[in-house]
Amino acid sequence: MRVSRLTAFSALVLGLATLFACDRKDDGYRTTGQKNRSTEPRSGGSSDTAWLPRAAEANLAEIDAGRLAESKGTSADVRQFGQQMAEDHSKANTELTDLATKKGVTLPSRPDDKHLKAAAELADLAGAEFDKKYADMMVTDHEKAVSLFDSHSSASDPDVKEFVDKTLPTLKHHLQMARDLKGKLTGTPKAD
User: Fold this and answer.
1) Domains in the chain, ordered, with CATH?
2) pLDDT digits over 169-183, tens only?
């Protein structure tokens, strides 16, 4: 028993050391100090593929928040938007997983800690307060997602570029939908 605890502890220490050693410069999408829990591509760490884990975390967060909105949303618009986010981001994540597998990149199986915390705070809300917070969160998250994908729209890897080119218009559409939803819920004019 003592040997297996020592082995588990050693693996944990080695894993943490690897995480800290592989940390990249903060690009504005991740919060400062947040570590990348995924591995770099086996092909040597192409910057074209290094962002795939962050895209996966964002997709997983949208899926979880969308499902929550489907079940907790007071407004039919919020429930419908949540359903569409869960469906669209599930589809995108399947495509992203296929791409990552092809490129030798391991993707996370859950959203990052920042998204998990935001989802927990959202889950504690109810009624119109939930609806407004969800709409606000969707605007912010999709602004970040559009920025993340825009920053990789000139990828030199043709597979990555194809994925970005295919996904970016949907993300921009989601952003506009989120802005429209937020405007409808808060009574403010929509932003273009």
Assistant:
1) 41-186 (1.20.1260.10)
2) 999 999 999 999 999
